[in-house]
Amino acid sequence: MNRASVVEIDPGAIAHNVAWLKEQAEGVRVLAVVKADGYGHGAVTAAEAAIAAGADGLCVALVQEGVELRRAGIEVPVLVLSEQPVEQLGQLVAHGLIATAYSARFVDALADEARRHDVSGQEVHLKIDTGMNRVGCRPGDATELAGRILARSPHLMLGGVFTHLATADDSDPTETERQLDRFENALAQLRRAGVDPGLVHAANSAGTVCHPRARFDMVRVGIAMYGIAPSVSMTERCSGLRPALTLRSKVSYVKRVAAGEGVSYGLRHRFEHPTTVATVPIGYADGIPRRSGSDGSSVLIGGRRRPIVGVVTMDQLMVDCGDDAVRVDDEVVLIGRQADAEITANEWGAVTGTIGYEIVCGLSPRLPRRVIS
Ligand SMILES: Cc1ncc(COP(=O)(O)O)c(C=O)c1O
């Protein structure tokens, strides 16, 4: 695909970030989270860079994401982070993916599937909900569920027990500590019942960096491996990271607009002075939030920040270039660096009322990914 607008991925930055996170994790295992097409960076590119930098395994959200990695020849352990539809368990088992379980129904279905495939030792990690209230069994049910998994030996094997933190990026550690207390109590109960939990894990990127207590045997790092701080407040703490994604385009059209004229649908933005307007061929169908103009987002052209004006349209957006001599084909950077200026995914997120995660995950497949070396 040949387009002026392109997502450029630097696998060297991903490798650097994984190495930095390994240092932060102080020796425990590191799983690289490559769900959602590697947070928009390309799952296989991200996985290969992470493995080269020493990641011990990968995490995905869906069976099909795990299958994509296997089809690319990736053989390291791949954990699917939540229970999956029963119809997909055949694929999960056949591709040697690690399952996550938190219900009796799922454990039984997985064991039946492993038996049908004549597989022994299908690895399962038990997920305990310690307060986020998304998925996971109640702490009080963990021992019974672990027993159910063990009872289905040799088809099933309990390889780990984990939880997920809801507020690890918060400067107030109270909720994280409460979740970790509940998790440790559940682990103690398991051990008292004679259950070996296998690999214990809890930390996401923020937990890895900010909460040594959450590191246990293994951490699961997503956003930070892409060089994006988990929250704006963690920017300083994550200054060792390098953003791996640049979103670039080129000016496709330039015109001078008279004072009093408006721009884009609804003509909601009006120019007070005669202004040079550059059009950039990227829009909300590519994942640029439609409201970016009214919310005050900028792009870089000629090494300077310039405001997006008017609503972003499906395929194009307009930029106020004042009186500057901007030309067709001039480079536009929407996320990344140009000369001394930089716009980060977190900045886009903050300006448009969301987070860097949503900005990079939302970059649509219509944008070609170019891997740089
Ligand atoms: C269960 C689980 N673990 C780890 C992660 C990685 O989180 P982060 O990207 O904040 O590092 C996620 C991401 O959403 C997740 O759902």
Key terms:
single chain, 373 residues, alpha/beta, TIM Barrel, Lyase, Ornithine Decarboxylase, Chain A, domain 1, 2 domains, ten-stranded mixed sheet, four-stranded parallel sheet, 20 strands, 24% strand, binds pyridoxal-5'-phosphate
Bound compounds, each kind once, are: pyridoxal-5'-phosphate
- Highest CATH level, the class of the largest domain: Alpha Beta
CATH superfamily of the largest domain: Alanine racemase
Class per helix and strand makeup: alpha/beta
Helix content: 25-40%
Shape: elongated
CATH topology of the largest domain: TIM Barrel
Mean pLDDT: 97
Rg (CA only): 23 Å
Count of discrete alpha- or pi-helical segments spanning 4 or more residues? 12
Which range does the strand content fall in? 15-25%
Question: What summary fits the major beta sheet?
Answer: 10 strands, mixed
Say how many strands there are.
20
CATH architecture of the largest domain: Alpha-Beta Barrel
Q: First CA to last CA: what distance? A: 19 Å
Low-confidence blocks of residues:
none
Number of domains: 2
Per-chain topology:
Elements: E1 6-9, H1 11-25, E2 29-33, H2 35-39, H3 43-52, E3 57-60, H4 63-71, E4 78-80, H5 89-94, E5 99-101, H6 104-116, E6 122-127, H7 142-151, E7 156-162, H8 174-192, E8 199-201, H9 205-210, E9 218-221, E10 245-250, E11 253-257, E12 262-263, E13 269-270, E14 275-280, H10 292-295, E15 298-301, E16 304-309, E17 317-320, E18 331-338, E19 341-343, H11 345-351, H12 356-361, E20 369-371
Parallel strand pairs: 1-20, 2-3, 2-9, 3-4, 5-6, 6-7, 7-8
Antiparallel strand pairs: 1-10, 10-18, 11-14, 12-13, 14-17, 15-16, 15-18, 16-17, 18-19
Helix pairs in contact: 1-3
The protein binds pyridoxal-5'-phosphate (PLP).
